[in-house]
Fold these 4 entries.
Entry 1:
Amino acid sequence: QKEVEQDPGPLSVPEGAIVSLNCTYSNSAFQYFMWYRQYSRKGPELLMYTYSSGNKEDGRFTAQVDKSSKYISLFIRDSQPSDSATYLCAMSAYNTDKLIFGTGTRLQVFP
Amino acid sequence: SAVISQKPSRDICQRGTSLTIQCQVDSQVTMMFWYRQQPGQSLTLIATANQGSEATYESGFVIDKFPISRPNLTFSTLTVSNMSPEDSSIYLCSVGVMTGELFFGEGSRLTVL
């Protein structure tokens, strides 16, 4: 079993839709949770960074962490064609530099 | 945040040759990391390169195959040695900052024929 599971998609939605992207994990030691956005032929770009459980909002993006279920989500409101990219979840345990990544979900937002 | 420049951005190489990828950061950072991203797979950490010490390699990666240099706090290189088609991948340099966030370069896309 992989430490981090993420549906690869692709996920195709119309412009303006609410998008939900998810990851599950098996290691209960994970404390830091991140979402990265990666456009084609570019490096990953940090979108959201959260510690432990709870919600964090930044503009149209909301990150949610449920440690009891070992489940994290990224919600995108009012999705735009410019949101079309691959979204990677990543996580790490306390006091370690090592990030474990999901495989990424490819999102397509069509006009 | 940190601005990270990688060279080359892409290259096509022959089997058996070696390629060195350079990573330059616009500020001094302690932690630098090298990742590999293969199609349809997670980003996989190759090694951690901290200035002043030997690189620390993850399981499945060895120094003879992926030698790393870290001469100062703004620069690192990764060499992919004796390449085979299985080494075709995107190689990414990343840096960690005090907040625990990780920033990535644009990546170096390597194709081995």
Note: Chain A touches chain B through 24 residues (CB under 8 Å).
Entry 2:
Amino acid sequence: AQKVTQAQTEISVVEKEDVTLDCVYETRDTTYYLFWYKQPPSGELVFLIRRNSFDEQNEISGRYSWNFQKSTSSFNFTITASQVVDSAVYFCALLIGGAGNMLTFGGGTRLMVKP
Amino acid sequence: GAGVSQSPRYKVTKRGQDVALRCDPISGHVSLYWYRQALGQGPEFLTYFNYEAQQDKSGLPNDRFSAERPEGSISTLTIQRTEQRDSAMYRCASSYRMGGGENTEAFFGQGTRLTVV
């Protein structure tokens, strides 16, 4: 069975601070995909990134960066110089290759960025 | 349309009534998914379709829940004889292709908030 754990249920930072959201996953499959989604206060789920299990290169997109480490089964998300607009619930999710399209989500981390 | 569209956005129904939730996926997307999200939790998989074929319905909680996608586009999730525990956000998503590789990211609609009173 697959499982995604986001141990931080809520994080509060002051604007311009860097913040890292943790994600730990469990699977026995060797082919899998990891995702991050953002749920702003308006409620929609916004796709941020997908990584596959064969590509451990870290990725940077503007103020966002992702650190994928298979050795620790982690896929952490860092926001640099946080802004108030980053306030949202962030979900990490896992998809097993070849087993349909069922995403397994973590419980989410609520990030509050204060001015 | 430009994105996944769900209707209604909000639905309040009395216990015992049937409800139908509609999802209009992104044009051309092959795969369509339904998820349920309880307050303060992550979405949980219900079922998914490739074209008009329902591929997996293992996440449907019981036989009061059903889904269809008869023409491979719009989908309807139906809940019969609703109960208070069915109250949740119901999310639909679609992806251009199936699987986990390129162009398979799931794009979500804004959801339908169902409240059973």
Note: DSSP finds no helices and eleven strands in chain B.
Entry 3:
Amino acid sequence: NAGVTQTPKFRVLKTGQSMTLLCAQDMNHEYMYWYRQDPGMGLRLIHYSVGEGTTAKGEVPDGYNVSRLKKQNFLLGLESAAPSQTSVYFCASSSRGTYQPQHFGDGTRLSIL
Amino acid sequence: DAKTTQPPSMDCAEGRAANLPCNHSTISGNEYVYWYRQIHSQGPQYIIHGLKNNETNEMASLIITEDRKSSTLILPHATLRDTAVYYCIVRPLDTGRRALTFGSGTRLQVQP
């Protein structure tokens, strides 16, 4: 069971570069989420999606874009990377239903120089 | 979402039960109690959730007080692999944001 898979696992970027983080889930979940976690802090929601073709902003959306063209994939894009975006990025997914738990990937560690 | 209070750290001997407390005195009637944990360098892992009745699954037991103002997560036989940060999260049925709010959690260290 793969669950939630994130690629890449590590990446180093230069300021101003762009990149896309990929999240794939094989559990047929309707909802998907992107969080970031900074050292010593809890997770903060960047964007989320409640279904294919639908996305919404979370707590810290600035500087990021997302797309959900297929139900199983949720992409997070950094348009012009900044050092403040150095973080660990986690993707999660859950079934429809408001008490369903979220299942997380193992994260992408991103450093912006 | 209701605020939760957890001790910052706890130790437990391997093979013994680990009892992790959480205070959520402002919880409202439609809010569930969730527990997640995060092992170093991994993504958070769902453990268990409950509304007002005690719950048990293959990982843990959740005891919620009758007034629902506090709860305890019980790992019945802690192993070294249970060393992690444990998060107690109170979440209503529909936040509209569908986000999980992770506080500081309790860092559980299981000692050999």
Note: Chain A is about 0% helix and 55% strand.
Entry 4:
Amino acid sequence: NAGVTQTPKFRVLKTGQSMTLLCAQDMNHEYMYWYRQDPGMGLRLIHYSVGEGTTAKGEVPDGYNVSRLKKQNFLLGLESAAPSQTSVYFCASSYIPNTSYGYTFGSGTRLTVV
Amino acid sequence: TQLLEQSPQFLSIQEGENLTVYCNSSSVFSSLQWYRQEPGEGPVLLVTVVTGGEVKKLKRLTFQFGDARKDSSLHITAAQPGDTGLYLCAGYYNTDKLIFGTGTRLQVFP
């Protein structure tokens, strides 16, 4: 089972450039999430989706956009990258939350904005 | 505002030692989860605790949920180098989304 697949694994952007991070899950999960992980900050939720065609803002949504056109895919976009967006980005998916199943995470995308 | 505080932030020990990691909050959580993250990978779920006072064991790892459901601890007995990683607690607080703690980075030396 592939689980949650993120592409690319690494990327270097120049300030002002745009890019899209791709996340795909094959577990038929309804919920999908995008987090960023920075040293000493833990995981912070950027945006999330409770089903196909839905998106919602998380804790740190500014500078990011998302789309969930298909149930299995959740895309994270950076329209105009800034050095403050240098981070490791994780996608996750889950069944209905608040259960014992927890989240399944991808292996991350390390993004550097110079 | 960080709802879940973990301590210690860093822990470096020798193989065979015991250790405890704490996850504390002033808020009540309906459930708490513990994850382990290895370098270059995403977090992987270890356990979920739901009932106040609940204790779960996973081989040499013992997880406890506080009676008031505001805190949790992870105790590792006879740590091994394979236990090295970042340990994250996470809880559902009044929403349908997980709130993650600040993390404890554990290094176990042979």
Note: Residues 92 and 101 of chain A are 12 Å apart (CA to CA).
